[in-house]
């Protein structure tokens, strides 16, 4: 056999979870088969367990004070850095999106470009949202009175089935204001979410700010919706109506803030997102102080 | 210690009817049911009037009236809606003494508070939101924010008319119509407000008042034609509401319980801090969701502060709420008194030390003396649960970081207080306290221009200010 006839075997990537800045396998040892839209085997993705979900919440909680305490300028810089890293891996994402069902390379390229631009757009909000969502309040008395937005805390995000632009569009508004999050990736097309985690891990984003779980949405979403150390849930990616209602009911236990877009199935992720996804995970704090000599 | 001659406010200014109907579609209507209950003066247990507890059919009728009124009301130019609200604000001012006396009779709060705090704030709230009605496009919620529809509103008994104002004024300004349920122990000022709506010629059905208890409230929030639910009350009921409306798509705002820390540093102006601590927990008999029910005092000044606090408490006058000299009125109901007693007894059982000043209690009515617990641990139920009464738990701390840790160690997050003369420390603390309102060197201040509402299990949404509009707009 001559050398020319040897076909080099590709080195495949193992797709694991992303928790606390590390890439562990599911502690349960479970995995599930991810196929391309044509039905070809792509990878065995980790199928996250309840313990993985709880570990991810712990990591997000641990990261919260530092991330919230960072200056908005710093958070904006890091989100911009994420955009830079994503741009640098454009070809890789185009290929992964093609596997996930985005047929034409031109369309996949458009998706990656839009995801990069979305990150840049949200990065700029870091030090501006308070000026838009806050206020000084002219109270009827000798008091200084000011309202400012603050992050809600740990947000559980069920990402939509749009594996890159939709994913970036739900993560960026949550973290740019200082929240940390646990993301349940698209069940059908989870691989770009783990590749995005590699982007996040190399963008100076502190470990634990974003944690990514892959696996069964029907399994993981209710665990997160019921978790008492989660402050808010974004149910954008929950397509099953009954599951969404069950998650909303579970979220009531500790009065989680719930974002459930009415027509999530039909969301146009290319459209101008507005500020709703930013303000959904912000609290308003009002501080009073007497004014006198 | 001075003696004070009695100075009772006359109750002749208010004319209480022996019985009331429901206010639906601009008319007084009979309930479909037979469920009639008496509302009493908690300071004397005297029966004031009889009201109906509205049935599901009654609630349905009120929601239909509100739905019918919604079209024309929301289509009306904002400037015209504004004028109705300004009218209401003016009538409230004109009838404020009558409303204050009625509030004190039905609720038990001192006339000094209903007259000087509740009523001025009620009128101010209607004035404030009246002005927004024709300026909504400038509120930062988009160029053409739309109302939601029919709002179902359920309010508590601690500030009956003020909570009504917080709910109705922004709802109407934004173009919604409302069905409001006052608390079962304090329905009378809401019913008088219905009269005010008639005096103002408010179109029928824009405001509907249904009296009743929990079942009436549940029928209202679960009514399929209600687009918006606004509730102020306990975290327990708020949780039930959040669960019951899950999946309905109704917009919900909840203003729930609290267990606020009032934090006093060693460099605080101690006399002012004492006044603030007293105001924080004994204002309105402690029936305040944002009450400063946990005093966190820096260890080095704990003894000095406690001595001053006890001296101050000995001068508080408890008794006839209609007496203009009264500081502490009656507990609102027998049920609330039982709850305060239960938790206070538990405080002793769990090992905290209880103290109250010499304080004779009237023979009739529901009364509880101002009470301080010292030696309280964070795990004690009196440090964790909302007592909703004149009971203060005292804990100590050494460092600012420890104060923050202890203050935030609660599922609630409604309010907090900080007392220090050091400006940078105020800002440092205010940044770290997970609470919707932080009062620095003051406490229990309210204003219609100032957003109010909680973090965590104290609920979601804001009332007051520009932020308060969002709750009633489709944004």
From TrEMBL, chain A:
Signal peptide feature range: none
SUPFAM superfamilies found in the cross-reference section: ALDH-like
GO molecular function: oxidoreductase activity
Keyword Oxidoreductase in annotation: yes
Domain of life assignment: Bacteria
Oxidoreductase among keywords: yes
Ranges of residues in domain Aldehyde dehydrogenase: 29-258
Keywords attached to this entry: Oxidoreductase
A Pfam family matched in the record: Aldedh
PANTHER family assigned to the protein according to its UniProt record, in alphabetical order: ALDEHYDE DEHYDROGENASE-RELATED (PTHR11699)
Protein's name according to its UniProt entry: Aldehyde dehydrogenase
TrEMBL record, chain B:
Domain Aldehyde dehydrogenase, first and last residues per copy: 28-474
Keyword Oxidoreductase attributed: yes
MF (Gene Ontology): oxidoreductase activity, acting on the aldehyde or oxo group of donors, NAD or NADP as acceptor
Domain of life: Bacteria
Catalytic center residues: 255
Oxidoreductase listed as a keyword: yes
Alphabetic keyword roster: Oxidoreductase
InterPro entries registered for this protein in UniProt: Ald_DH/histidinol_DH, Ald_DH_C, Ald_DH_CS_GLU, Ald_DH_N, Aldehyde_DH_dom
Family the UniProt entry places it in: Belongs to the aldehyde dehydrogenase family.
PANTHER family, A to Z: ALDEHYDE DEHYDROGENASE-RELATED (PTHR11699)
Protein name as annotated: Aldehyde dehydrogenase
Natural source organism: Streptosporangium carneum
